[in-house]
TrEMBL record:
Species lineage: Bacteria, Pseudomonadati, Pseudomonadota, Gammaproteobacteria, Vibrionales
The protein's name: SDR family NAD(P)-dependent oxidoreductase
InterPro entries named among the record's database cross-references: Fungal_SecMetab_SDRs, NAD(P)-bd_dom_sf, SDR_fam
Length: 256
């Protein structure tokens, strides 16, 4: 049934875009492993309707005491290594909580930067990709072809920054972009058939962008389904020659 189809690992599959990516890639007939720190009714329903095609791992790969890595490796041993890996996890703002009585929003001024929110952004938007790559690095042989796609953002482009603000988010995405570029150089030597790239999906109508949508023209706010289709289209065309690139959702390259 799945002959010729890809084996895909989607991290952060419970977010709005991650869920849409999971649904779209399943619809193409691929075998999908998803990992998420928290599940949801929507994700459970998707798994129930694709029980022979989808496997779900609940846990945090970044936590050293977590058994998430061993669960993933057991799945890959059973079904085969992922041809494609996508990290859809990310952070832009944080709601009120017991630990944080005030919602945390992107900073407009220098005076608003806090160590905790900056660290949270770096962890969510940059380090999660490092943790995923470190696992992938142990799985493949030199001649294995595979893709690793990281969701970045144009606000992480230093040369594109002409409005300022959003300090922690910008810095964390710039850190991600540097990681992608640096890792691509190492992996060109170790895995010459691999491709690691970053992609800007555009502003997508999810909870991540919800507080900021009033400033966005309706034709620049995309549904999760449309963004998922565009990401899939770019991912499907990647080759080893594209490694280390930063892509717009339309497939054009963006400046670092």
């Amino acid at each position: 049934m799945f002959e010729g189809k890809k084996k895909v690992w989607i991290a952060g599959a419970n977010g709005g875009l991650g869920l849409a990516l999971t649904e779209h890639i399943l619809a193409q007939g691929h075998l999908v492993t998803v990992s998420t720190r928290r599940t949801s009714q929507a994700l459970l329903q998707l798994q129930a309707s694709h029980s022979t095609q989808m496997t779900c791992v609940l846990g945090d790969l970044c936590q050293q005491r977590s058994n998430t890595q061993s669960q993933l490796m057991a799945i890959f041993e059973q079904y085969g290594l992922p041809d494609w890996t996508i990290n859809a996890a990310g952070l832009l703002h944080a709601p009120q909580s017991k630990q944080s009585p005030k919602a945390k929003m992107p900073e407009k001024r220098l005076s608003q930067i806090t160590e905790s929110f900056l660290v949270d952004n770096i962890h969510a938007n940059a380090y999660t990709n490092v943790a995923i790559a470190q696992l992938l690095d142990t799985l493949y042989k030199r001649k294995d072809p595979f893709h690793f796609l990281c969701l970045s953002a144009m606000v992480g482009s230093i040369s594109d920054n002409d409005s300022g603000g959003w300090y922690s988010y910008r810095m964390s995405k710039a850190a991600l972009n540097m990681f992608v570029k640096t890792l691509s150089i190492e992996w060109q030597r170790r895995f010459p058939q691999a491709c690691i790239a970053a992609i800007h999906p555009g502003t997508t109508n999810t909870s991540l962008s919800a507080p900021f949508q009033h400033n966005i023209n309706s034709d620049k706010l995309y549904s999760p389904q449309l963004s998922a289709e565009r990401i899939y289209r770019v991912l499907s065309t990647l080759t080893p020659a594209d490694t280390g690139q930063f892509f717009h959702w339309d497939g054009t390259t963006l400046p670092w």
